[in-house]
């Protein structure tokens, strides 16, 4: 009976680590794809090298989970106590790091409010200055999502104008309607847009547009995160049980 239980634990351990291995492989593939060929991400990611940080983090996490799953599978099949112990300690550190990140995200969630982004936009936005990371990122987001500011064009009334700009031209170019929503897209009527003609401007705020666009994906990401934590927890339990059962 004990041998059957150990054998069952071994194959369950292999199964859970195989899922971790596949998850790591997927993250690794997505990270490589974004860095090597950022089609569809060029406006938001490739426009500024600093924004590649997220892709590199995804790449590192994918590689780590890939290696972790591989070690767990080998440790389970070969019944190697050293590999199982290394696997347990490694996945425990990852589990605690992910749990800490989730707790911090919950504690500081108020920093992702509409008011916070509006305040930051008015404080740091430099209009068409693409050498500035903050401004370039905002311009890329507004062009890509066909939106303007956090709440709408009125957010830019408090943003300092460029030299020699007329006072009525508070709306930045990134808020103007384009035939194609990309930096290469031709303006429908740039002058009318900058002069305040509303029908040539993107009037909807980016906060609402992005929230609506990613609402489904946020819940999906949350469900996947819970699933990953559960898999890691069970993998640790099986690793310890298998470790104790190996003679």
TrEMBL record:
Similarity field: Belongs to the tetraspanin (TM4SF) family.
UniProt key word Transmembrane: yes
Coiled-coil ranges from the UniProt annotation: none
Record key words, sorted: Glycoprotein, Membrane, Transmembrane, Transmembrane helix
Recorded topology in the membrane: Multi-pass membrane protein
Protein name: Tetraspanin
InterPro entries to which the protein is assigned, alphabetical: Tetraspanin/Peripherin, Tetraspanin_animals, Tetraspanin_CS, Tetraspanin_EC2_sf
Species, as recorded: Tricholaema leucomelas (pied barbet)
Protein localization: Membrane
Transmembrane portions of the chain: 12-36, 56-77, 84-108, 217-243
SUPFAM superfamilies: Tetraspanin (SSF48652)
UniProt main location, coarse: membrane
Alphabetized Pfam families for the sequence: Tetraspanin (PF00335)
GO cellular component, one term: plasma membrane
Top-level taxon of origin: Eukaryota
């Amino acid at each position: 009976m004990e041998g059957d239980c150990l054998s069952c634990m071994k194959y369950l351990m292999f199964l859970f680590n195989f899922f971790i291995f596949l998850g790591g492989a997927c993250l690794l593939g997505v990270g490589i794809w974004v860095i090597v060929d950022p089609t569809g991400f060029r406006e938001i990611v490739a426009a500024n090298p600093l924004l590649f940080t997220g892709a590199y983090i995804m790449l590192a996490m994918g590689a780590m989970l890939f290696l972790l799953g591989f070690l767990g599978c080998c440790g389970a099949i070969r019944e190697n106590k050293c590999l199982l112990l290394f696997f347990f300690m490694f996945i425990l550190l990852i589990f605690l790091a992910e749990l800490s990140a989730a707790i911090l995200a919950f504690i500081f969630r108020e920093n992702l409010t509409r008011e916070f982004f509006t305040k930051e936009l008015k404080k740091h936005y430099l209009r068409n200055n693409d050498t500035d990371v903050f401004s370039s990122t905002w311009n890329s987001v507004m062009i890509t999502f066909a939106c303007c500011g956090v709440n709408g064009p009125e957010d830019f009334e408090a943003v300092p104008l460029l030299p020699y700009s007329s006072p009525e031209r508070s709306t930045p170019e990134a808020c103007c309607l384009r035939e194609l929503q990309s930096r290469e897209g031709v303006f429908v009527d740039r002058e009318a847009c900058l002069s305040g003609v509303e029908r040539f401007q993107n009037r909807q705020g980016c906060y609402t547009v992005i929230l609506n666009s990613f609402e489904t994906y946020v819940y999906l990401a949350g469900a996947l995160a819970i699933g990953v934590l559960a898999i890691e927890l069970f993998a640790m339990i099986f690793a310890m049980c298998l470790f104790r059962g190996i003679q």
